[in-house]
Amino acid sequence: MSMKIAVLLHSGAGGSGVVATELGLCFAKLGNEVHFVADRVPFRLTELSQENVFFHKVESMTYPLFDAPLTTLAEASKLAELIEELGIDIVHAHYAVPHATAAVLARDMVRCDKKPVVITTLHGTDVTLIGLDRAYLRTTQYSIEHSDIVTAVSQYLAEYTTAEMNVERVINVIYNAVDLERFKPRELASLRLKYAHPDEKILIHVSNFRRLKRVEDVIKVFAKVSNEIGSRLLMVGDGPERHKAFELASKLGISGRVSFLGSFPRVEDVLAISDLFLLLSEKESFGLSALEAMASGVPVLATNIGGIPEVVKDGSSGFLHDVGDIENMATSAIKLLSDPKLHKKFADYARYCAASKFNEAVILPEYQKIYAQALTLRNGRAKR
Ligand code: GMT
Predict the structure, then answer these.
(1) Structure letter (DSSP) for residue 174
(2) Which atom of ligand 1 is nearest to the CA of 212?
(3) How far apart are the C-alpha atoms of 195 and 11, rounded to whole Å?
(4) From atom 2 of ligand 1, which residue's Cα is the shortest distance away?
(5) In this prediction, what percent of the chain has a pLDDT beyond 70?
(6) How far is the CA of 285 from the centre of ligand 1 (A)?
(7) Cis geometry, peptide bond prior to residue 265 (ω within 30 degrees of 0)
(8) Is the pLDDT of residue 156 over 80?
(9) Mutate which of 288, 304, 308, 312 to test ligand 1's pocket (most atoms within 8 Å of Cβ)?
(10) How far does Cα 40 stand from its chain's mean position?
(11) Distance 126 CA to ligand 1 centre (A)
(12) Residues 33, 3: contact at Cβ < 8 Å?
């Protein structure tokens, strides 16, 4: 049976927006009507031409009395209108704040019998950073507790939410999926030559350059690696800490070997030409960028925190180290990059894990089960 689904998401570059968009598009391909609701068109939403995919812009009113627009209220009002006009069955809120809050508010205030079911997917800092901040704690707890169904992108995040947020409810773990056609090992010789000589290795980091990504550690590790091995570093993305990474590279005298590519839209291409992916964050509930690298056949050097060990297997698809352990990180990177046989083994296993555990064909049915459960809930509600 076809459903009407509203998806609330962050539209800027970020893993939760990618997951929300791709999942929504998968459900549209299955014949459902999918309505994306955000302040601007989500950056990965490229299929608006599909007739059953819609985008609804949340307009916030500015008023001199307010320091900032009241976006959560505007989102809830917009969603309530859509629910009443279109008869939305399921609202899927990606990221607890503010989307779960807006979704719960809209569900509760709509003037119709057939209230939709709210599914909230927890992604990471919505719980581990923002949600736990005193300024948002009670609202985040309330929004999670009053969602009809809750999912989290890793076992770590589910357990953390229960323990640290003190919320008592079932949290279903559904891992993020990766598009194996888009992210796959490929020979892109001319692109590779653009960034490195044939005998050089390419290391890569992709993120939104926030403090928790520890981009300076990426530069420090690369400085040690490039002392031993002819190599280049690609820094992909943009964000508040980019200038620090740039300045450190200059200070260490390696800026000629580091390319800052900004928000490169075809990240799958630069991943395909890379030999090692670096994700050295201090918080990471899953690490979608690492998974995209693995699907591209690129081993990962990462920190052993949060949900990363559920994605990257230490000693098989990459190496995991303590946050800030630059010395051992560099040693592992050098070991992998200087042994072609070992590198091939890791690269193949990385792709194998992405294809077997995080394949859309494996993950989508898990969401389908959750959506079916949601429909049953909604039908029960409608009979009352
Ligand atoms: O929570 C965030 O910091 C933002 C979010 C995003 O939109 O990029 O990232 C989180 O969700 C991703 C998708 O589920 C995960 O892959 C990231 O690990 C997670 N980030 C953190 O936990 C820091």
Answers:
(1) -
(2) 23
(3) 30
(4) 125
(5) 98
(6) 6
(7) no
(8) yes
(9) 288
(10) 18
(11) 8
(12) yes
Ligand 1 center from residue 193 Cα (angstroms): 32
Q: Write b or e for each residue in 200-238: b if 16 or more Cβ atoms lie within 10 A of its Cβ, otherwise e.
A: ebbbbbbbbbbebbbbbbbbbbbbbbbeebebbbbbbbb
Q: What are the tokens at 73?
A: 């209220």
Alpha-carbon distance values, 198 to 170, 258, 339, 380 (Å): 52, 16, 16, 63
Record the pTM: 0.95
Q: Is 144 helix (H, G, I), strand (E, B) or coil?
A: helix
Q: Which residues line ligand 1 (CB under 6 A)?
A: 10, 14-17, 19, 123-126, 153, 176, 212, 283-288
Span from the CA of 98 to the centroid of ligand 1 (angstroms): 15
298: confidence class by pLDDT, cuts 50, 70, 90: very high
Answer whether 25's CB lies under 8 Å from 3's CB.
no
Task: Using alpha carbons, select from 175, 213, 225, 184 the residue that is nearest to residue 328.
Answer: 225
Q: 297, 293, 333: which is closest to 201 by C-alpha? A: 333
The Å distance, Cα 203 to ligand 1 centre, comes to 22
| Domains assigned to the chain | 4-177+360-382 (3.40.50.2000), 189-357 (3.40.50.2000)
Instruction: Kindly report, residue by residue over 210-260, the tens digit of the pLDDT.
Output: 999 999 999 999 999 999 999 999 999 999 999 999 999 999 999 999 999
